[in-house]
Amino acid sequence: MSVQQWSETVILGELGDDPQFTDDLTAIIEQCTKDTRQDVLLNLSGVNYLNSSNIAHLLKLRKLVTITNHRRLKLAGVNRQVWGVFLVTGLDRIFEFVEDVPSGLATLQMGA
To answer: Superfamily assignment of 2-110 in CATH?
Structure first.
């Protein structure tokens, strides 16, 4: 769907299903590699399924943003089917989720 620089330190990714999912996450990873000050909010409301490659990209982004850059990554708008994948894989315990984009942006902007 799209990747945009929402503010000086927040990247907002509006994700869809593959192949756009992979392309957008690759772009975000490149951006976060170049500028280590970026928090990331991913809107997954347009995502209907996750495959193993998608999960690998999400884990790579999480490692870069939260561990390497010491920034925050939040996932918003996860539908029931995609949430099931997070639950089955145990990834619901390592990612931070917010209800929707406005909540996620507010949380990131407030520094919470």
So the answer is: STAS domain (3.30.750.24)
Half-sphere exposure of 21 (CA within 13 A, CB side): 19
Sequence spans of domains, the chain: 2-110
Going by C-beta distance under 8 Å and a sequence separation of 6 or more, which residues neighbour residue 23? none
Burial of 45 (0-12, 13-18, 19+ CB in 10 A): middle
Instruction: Note the pLDDT tens digit of each residue in 18-33.
Output: 889 999 999 999 999 9
Measure the CA–CA gap between 55 and 37, rounded to whole angstroms. 23
pTM for the full predicted model: 0.93
Mean pLDDT, residues 97-102 taken together: 95
Q: Which of 16, 58, 68, 82 is nearest to 37 (CA)?
A: 68
- Residue 37, classed as helix, strand or coil, is coil
